[in-house]
Write a structure and sequence with these properties.
The complex is a heterodimer of chains A (115) and B (118).
Chain A lengths: L3 E4 L2 E5 L4 E7 L6 E6 L5 E7 L5 E4 L2 E6 L4 E6 L8 E8 L10 E3 L3 E6 L1
Parallel strand pairs in A: 2-11
Antiparallel strand pairs in A: 1-3, 3-8, 4-5, 4-9, 6-7, 7-8, 9-10, 9-11
Chain B lengths: L4 E3 L2 E4 L5 E6 L6 E7 L5 E8 L2 E4 L8 E4 L6 E5 L8 E8 L12 E2 L3 E5 L1
Parallel strand pairs in B: 2-11
Antiparallel strand pairs in B: 1-3, 3-8, 4-5, 4-9, 5-6, 7-8, 9-10, 9-11
Classes of the chains: A mainly beta (115), B mainly beta (118).
Chain lengths: 115, 118
C-alpha cells in the first residue's frame, strides 16, 4: 500500500523567511502533484512533477522531485501572508503509462505566515 | 463556468437518512474520482468511474456507500443510513485522459460537499 508522508504538518513562518516542506512516498512513482487548499475551499493545482530531477517554479514556490529517493520538496522563498494555506502532495500509484489517476495524498502541511 | 460542479455545497442529514451528492465533471472529461476529507486530514480516494462503469472502488466502505456515473447526467455518490462518522467533506475530481496522456494534466477538483450528520 502506498504511503505518503509530509513534514512538517504545521509550519509557522515569519514573512520574508524561507522554508521547505518535504513529501516522502513509499513505492515507485514518477507522478507527483502539489495542491493548495484554503480553509473551506477546494484544491488548487500548483505543480505537476513527472520525472526524476524535475524542478518547477511559480512565484515564491519551487517544487522538485527525486524519484530515486522517493522525495519531493516544496520550497518557499521570502514568504508572504498570502501563502498561508494547507499544502498537499499527492502521488499517482501507477508508473510507466498505466496510470488512471488514483491519487494518494499526504496529510497536508498547514502553513501560517506571520507579519 | 466550465469547472467541476458539485452540489449541494452543504448537506445536513439526521442519522439513518440518505445522502446524495452530485458531481458534474468538467466539459469534455469522462473520468470522475470521489475523495473524502475528514477534518484536518488529507483526502482519501474512494472510487473512480467512467461513464456507466465503476473502474476502481477500492476506497469505498463495503456497506452503505455506492457511486454511479450514468450515461446522461452527473455522477452520484450515495450514502445510505448515514452515521455521525460519515461527516466529512466529499470532493469530486475529473480528468480527460488516462495513461501517459494524463500525466501532465492534474485532476480538477470541485468545491466539495460538506456533509454534516446530526
Amino acid at each position: 500500500e502506498l504511503k505518503v508522508e509530509q513534514n512538517p504538518l504545521f509550519l509557522s513562518m515569519q514573512e520574508g523567511k524561507n522554508y521547505t516542506i518535504y513529501c516522502n512516498y513509499s513505492t515507485t512513482s514518477d507522478r507527483l502533484y502539489w495542491y493548495r487548499q484554503d480553509p473551506g475551499k477546494s484544491l488548487e493545482s500548483l505543480f505537476v512533477l513527472l520525472s526524476n530531477g524535475a524542478v518547477k517554479q511559480e512565484g515564491r514556490l519551487m517544487a522538485s522531485l527525486d524519484t530515486k529517493a522517493r522525495l519531493s520538496t516544496l520550497h518557499i522563498t521570502a514568504a508572504v501572508h498570502d501563502l498561508s494555506a494547507t499544502y498537499f502532495c499527492a502521488v499517482d500509484e501507477s508508473a510507466g503509462g498505466t496510470s488512471y489517476g488514483k491519487l494518494t495524498f499526504g496529510q497536508g502541511t498547514i502553513l501560517t505566515v506571520h507579519p | 463556468n466550465a469547472g467541476v460542479m458539485q452540489n449541494p455545497r452543504h448537506l445536513v442529514r439526521r442519522r439513518g437518512q440518505e445522502a446524495r451528492l452530485r458531481c458534474s465533471p468538467m466539459k469534455g472529461h469522462s473520468h470522475v474520482y470521489w475523495y473524502r476529507q475528514l477534518p484536518e486530514e488529507g483526502l482519501k480516494f474512494m472510487v473512480y468511474l467512467q461513464k456507466e462503469n465503476i473502474i476502481d472502488e477500492s476506497g469505498m466502505p463495503k456497506e452503505r456507500f455506492s457511486a454511479e456515473f450514468p450515461k446522461e447526467g452527473p455522477s452520484i455518490l450515495r450514502i445510505q443510513q448515514v452515521v455521525r462518522g460519515d461527516s466529512a467533506a466529499y470532493f469530486c475530481a475529473s480528468s480527460g485522459f488516462t495513461g501517459t496522456a494524463s500525466a501532465n494534466q492534474p485532476q480538477h477538483f470541485g468545491d466539495g460537499t460538506r456533509l454534516s450528520i446530526l
